[in-house]
Write a structure and sequence with these properties.
The complex is a heterodimer of chains A (about 120) and B (about 110). In chain A, about 0% of the residues lie in helices and about 55% in strands. Chain A is mainly β. The termini of chain B are far apart. The chains are: A mainly beta (about 120), B mainly beta (about 110). At the A-B interface, strand 4, strand 5 and strand 10 of A face strand 5 and strand 10 of B.
């Protein structure tokens, strides 16, 4: 099945460390997104990309960077992790021109803990 | 930017009863309103969506209504079942070029009790 995958699924790191979260998809979608989920705050958009080399900031991009080197891969980096970046991170994809329309398909999530 | 408010944050209903979750949005240009369901430990999944040219949409036990004038939309679940227990998120987006850029509400945790 075409899917969205994320690695790692769980990660514990220390304050100040650089960390990268990876997202891969086999759906052939052009659009990819990174969200973070915190209790009581819902899903907040960090960065999004509508095509390879296209990068756009979301509502909470400070402290994060992304890379979209291929259609199938979208990486999220925390250059110097801090405790308030502890959260559940989701990658998502969409293809408005395809059969899924505007539906976003989410990966399984990465639980990140910054000590 | 768009702001989406969602209420209530938690909702407990007895099996067989109806559940209603309400959302309001701020940008009158928003024209696409999906609802996602997230079961415990799982990823969010789309359950129903509505566009601004439609006032109501139904899919079996779930329905969504939209009031563009008041800028609010609601999710209705009838004959609730234990498997409906989950967190539900509403969202809104604007335009065609940016149609996939969603702003989510803060979520409603629905508990269906036996």
């Amino acid at each position: 099945d075409a899917d969205v995958t994320q690695t790692p699924r769980n990660r514990i790191t220390k304050t100040g460390k650089r960390i990268m979260l990876e997202c891969s998809q086999t759906k052939g979608h052009d659009r990819m997104y990174w969200y973070r989920q915190d209790p009581g705050l819902g899903l907040r958009l960090i960065y999004y990309s509508f095509d390879v080399k296209d990068i756009n900031k979301g509502e909470i991009s400070d402290g994060y960077s992304v890379s979209r080197q291929a259609q199938a891969k979208f990486s999220l980096s925390l250059e110097s992790a801090i405790p308030n970046q502890t959260a559940l991170y989701f990658c998502a994809t969409s293809d408005p021109s395809g059969s899924g329309g505007n539906e976003q398909f989410f990966g399984p999530g990465t639980r990140l803990t910054v000590l | 930017g768009e702001n989406v408010e969602q209420h209530p944050s938690t909702l407990s209903v007895q099996e067989g009863d109806s559940a209603v979750i309400k959302c309001t949005y701020s940008d009158s240009a928003s024209n696409y309103f999906p609802w996602y369901k997230q079961e415990l430990g799982k990823r969010p999944q789309l359950i129903i969506d509505i566009r601004s040219n439609v006032g109501e949409k139904k899919d079996q036990r779930i329905a969504v209504t939209l009031n563009k004038t008041a800028k609010h939309f609601s999710l209705h679940i009838t004959e609730t079942q234990p498997e409906d227990s989950a967190v539900y998120f509403c969202a809104a987006s604007i335009g065609t070029g940016t149609a996939s850029k969603l702003t989510f509400g803060t979520g409603t945790r629905l508990q269906v009790t036996l």
